[in-house]
Amino acid sequence: MLANARLLLAALWAGSVWTVSYLAAPSAFAVLDSTQAGNVVGIMLTRSAWLAIALAVLLGLLVARATDLDARRKRWLYGVIGGMLACSLIVYLGLQPTMAAIRAAAGPAGVRASPQWGTFAALHGVSQGLYLVETILGALLVVKAR
Questions:
Q1: What 8-state DSSP symbol labels residue 113?
Q2: Could you tell me if 141 and 73 are in contact, meaning their C-beta atoms sit under 8 angstroms apart?
Q3: Which end of the chain is less packed: N or C, by CB atoms within 10 Å?
Q4: According to DSSP H, which parts of 20-116 are helical?
Q5: Tell me, what's the pLDDT at 59?
Q6: How many DSSP H helices and E strands does the chain contain?
Q7: How far apart are CA 6 and CA 66, in angstroms?
């Protein structure tokens, strides 16, 4: 039963990361202007970060209580869970606030017209890289959670 719960939570976490990163965010930018899309995606990323925190705690507890996992596998799962959580928190606590401040300072002209565009683009690239790492870790977590 715990193995099934681990798999379900891992699938929920990985699926939410994949959905926001590869479906919802690109779709928002495809149909909304960049300011509106940025606001919508920012809200989704915030909710995704809170979901990541909750799922990391729950998965950590399930791994700790698992009697079907040896110590080596538990350490490995803790590492994947920690890696995914770290990716999410770096984006949420580190990159998102800085990017939001750059967007706000840019005003109605938009961030692309801002002298901070290069910094914003670099932070966005780092954010995308972290989400790519998180999606790969999510796939590993789903495969190995059970």
A1: G
A2: no
A3: N
A4: 25-31, 34-65, 71-89, 96-106
A5: 97
A6: 6, 0
A7: 9
> For the chain, how many structural domains are there in total?
1
How crowded is the C-beta side of 123, counted as CA atoms within 13 Å?
20
Owning domain of residue 112: 2-144
Using CA atoms, how far residue 94 sits from 88, 101, 126, 127, 131, in Å, is: 10, 12, 11, 10, 14
pLDDT of residue 54: 98
For the segment 77-98, what is each residue's pLDDT rounded down to a tens digit?
999 999 999 999 999 999 999 9
Please tell me the pTM assigned to this model: 0.91
Can you tell me the distance from the alpha carbon of 118 to that of 91, in angstroms, rounded to the nearest whole number? 18
**What gap in Å lies between CA 77 and CA 60, rounded to an integer?**
8
Quick: pLDDT tens for 35-75: 889 889 989 999 999 999 999 999 999 999 999 999 999 99
| Structure letter (DSSP) for residue 110 | -
